[in-house]
Each structure stands twice: as C-alpha cells, then as structure tokens.
UniProtKB/TrEMBL annotation:
It comes from the Bacteria. GO terms for biological process: NADP+ biosynthetic process. The keyword Hydrolase does not apply. One of its GO terms (molecular function) is NAD+ kinase activity. Keywords: Kinase, Transferase. This is NAD(+) kinase.
Length: 156
C-alpha cells in the first residue's frame, strides 16, 4: 500500500470566513489522495516549537494568503526540509508563486509533484541586551528591522 501524502494548508480566519476558497482547496487536495491539515495563522507559535502537523511526513505546505501569511507559514517549516508554495489571496504577493486565479493549476502541479524548490536564504540575528550573558537569537526570511526599545521618545 502506498504511503499517504500529507499536506498542510495555512490560511487565516478572514479568508476562511470570506467564502469557499479554503473549503474547495481542502476538498480538491483530499480528492487527490492527500491527508490534509488546516492551520490558521493565529495558531502558529511565535517562536521555537513546531506544531505536530508539520513534520518529516509533510510533503508540502500550501499557503492561501498574502505575504504576511507566507511569512507566518515560514515559521512552521524553519529548520525542516518541507517546502512552501504560496497562492496569493491578499494584496501583496511578492513571495507567492501563484495568484488566486491560478489555484486549480497550483493544486494540479502539487498533485503531480510538478514544481521546483527554490532555496531561500534566511538572515540570522543575535541581539545582545545589557546585563544578559547570552544573546537573543532569531531569524528572518524577508528582512530584519532594528528599532529603539523606547519608542515613546520619538513621539511629540
């Protein structure tokens, strides 16, 4: 018996509630033989732990949303070999491979494993805080922003 294929679909509450796009995507993937797990971006931990639904058995993460949703999904797969495919349902889609009108083509290509994996570089940052013996360590896919700790000094 062939091993079942597992896909994780990441989206956000607003998109789930706005129509049938998410449900139709889940249905198409299930009909194609995938075990599908749906994750809302509100349920992605901020740092350090992977939800049990993204593991070595996950073939791919499909993101329905904009760049913000893709960046949140990147937190799920950081330090794994699981690829992400983004389908832009938002306003900004620089990180997405497909636009919303290409949803059926994207699903077909996922089912046929007809995609190339583009390795993305990540930036690692160490932040040394006064009085701390170890730095805070983090990473970023898109960019790193450095801000003053006391934003109140900037206001009038």
């Amino acid at each position: 018996m062939a091993k079942s294929r597992h896909v994780v679909v990441v989206t956000h509450k607003r998109l789930r509630e706005s129509g049938n796009i998410v449900q139709n995507t889940l249905l198409q993937l299930e009909r194609a033989g995938f075990d599908v797990t749906l994750i809302d971006t509100n349920n992605i931990p901020d740092f350090g732990t992977l939800p049990p639904s993204v593991d070595e058995n996950t073939e791919i993460v499909v993101v329905l949303g904009g760049d913000g949703t893709i960046l949140r999904a990147a937190e799920l797969v950081h330090c794994t070999d699981v690829p992400i495919i983004g389908i832009n349902m938002g306003h900004v889609g620089f990180l997405a491979e497909f636009e919303s009108f290409q949803l059926e083509e994207a699903i077909r290509r996922i089912c046929e494993r007809d995609y190339l994996i583009d390795e993305r570089m990540v930036a690692h940052v160490d932040v040394w805080l006064p009085g701390q013996e170890e730095p805070l360590r983090d990473w970023a896919l898109n960019d790193i922003t450095i801000e003053r700790a006391d934003r109140g000094k900037w206001s009038n």
